[in-house]
Amino acid sequence: MTEAEEHLEDEVGTGGERLADRFRIEGRIGAGSQAETFRAVDEQTGETVCVKRVVVSEVDDWNSVQLFEREAETLQRLDHEAIPALVDAFHNECGDGGEQFVLVQQFVDGKDLEQLLDDGTPFTEQQLRELAEQILETLQFLHSHDPPVIHRDIKPSNIMRRASDRRFVLVDFGTVRVAAVDPTSETTTVGTVGYTPLEQLMGQVQPASDLYALGATLIHLASRTHPGELPVKNNAIDFRGRVDVSDDFARFVERLIKPAPEDRFSSAQQALRWLEDPPPAPEDESLSVRAAPPPIQWEPESSRLEAYRDGNVLRFIYDRYTVGCTIFAVGGGLIATFPLAMAVASTTDLEQGQALLRFGLLPLVVLAIIVPTVASRASHRLELTDDTLRFRSAVRRISAPLDAIRSVDSENRQVCLEIDDDGRRHQIRFGPKRGDRLTEEDSRRVAEEVRRHLG
To answer: What are the tens digits of pLDDT across the range 271-287?
Structure first.
């Protein structure tokens, strides 16, 4: 008897039923709030398959059916050894005359991690590392699609350990999402409490959301405690006192579950590299950050450049806002509104003049003054923390791991940073190209401070 057969919940009334004149139901594996899952035999091939069925009349809303159809569409284009392959998908009438949607996949003989936890199976650090490596490899495959495929519900019950080779397999793509989908079109919040990061709850799911869920899963297995029941410190799960793992592995998990997605690993590939070759631990191992570099020792020559350090955070802000910008904006607004003002002055119809003034002149004056003024305030902001670089200008926003910085130089009164983030190359130039620019000395000093922060 296989491991899965030992966990069949209820076979009464299901054996012998045939679907699409091809799949013979042998027994029920499980039942959720919206769908039932069965073990069946594909009579064309003789292989055991897994049948997932949703009866339209029994679902709470149509979104459940849409998620089911999305799962089938996604599985159809996924070919990976750690993802059960799609065999067939169809809809037809069920016994009561209603409609049912059916999805057929390869059968995975094994237990999921939640069952292993319930059985009292211990998880060593080595086993957790193997799990992390294999799931990260699967996520690397999913996230490498264009657009990325995001699972959205990684947790112990959705990871199975296959009995034949003991490989970890990712199952249940019922909440899968293609990243290019407009987040405002998503009306159903999916995920599981304790494993779902904040950005996903807000409908802004991204590949880093799957990394968070993997981290929470590792914590559950290592601590044998649901992550929702563990204490929280600085908006992150505080698990260190509940697990017996090395400091390197604990730091790896801490990076996975950072509250802000930009502070996590930038990709599954980067997480894999970190796991295989972790960077040195901080000098003070009681801290999760390295010691703060010395404070800034110079005063910028330009009054528009702000340079300061706040603990382990280094910030530079260059604000190009002048009185001339305001004069230009006001003058532009007056010139733009002059024709309309003349039209108001020349009309003899009082009501028409009031209408022109109310609906044309005043909004135009406001737009003509505010828009150029706001646009003229083009500031550059460069911020470096313990492990992340952030850059923001009027037209660019970049966030990357600190170890992605390849070079820092001062050139042509700008600070130039070369970034290589898992093959994605960026060039950051702090400071304007023309006009009211940094001085040579300021650009050189900023570059020195950045290099000193990098160590």
So the answer is: 999 999 988 876 544 44
- Residues annotated as catalytic are 153
Q: How far apart are CA 187 and CA 190, in angstroms?
A: 10
pLDDT in tens, 127-166: 999 999 999 999 999 999 988 999 999 999 999 999 999 9
| CA distances from residue 194 to 117, 215, 231 in whole angstroms, order as listed | 16, 11, 11
Tell whether omega for the bond before 207 is within 30 degrees of 0, i.e. cis: no
Annotated domain spans of the chain: 5-106, 110-276, 305-320+378-454, 323-372
CA distance 155 to 153: 6
- Find where tokens 């706040």 sit: 310
CA distances from 75 to 71, 188, 329, 346 (A): 6, 20, 55, 69
> Architecture of 5-106 per CATH?
2-Layer Sandwich (3.30)
CATH number of 305-320+378-454: 2.30.29.30
Tell me if 430 sits within 8 A of 414, measured CB to CB.
yes
For 344: left if phi > 0, alpha if psi spans -120 to 50, otherwise beta; the answer is alpha
> CATH fold of 110-276, please?
Transferase(Phosphotransferase); domain 1 (1.10.510)
220/156 Cα distance (integer angstroms): 8
Neighbours of 85 (CB within 10 A): 14
Phi, psi of 365 (to 5 degrees): -60, -45
Record the pTM.
Answer: 0.62
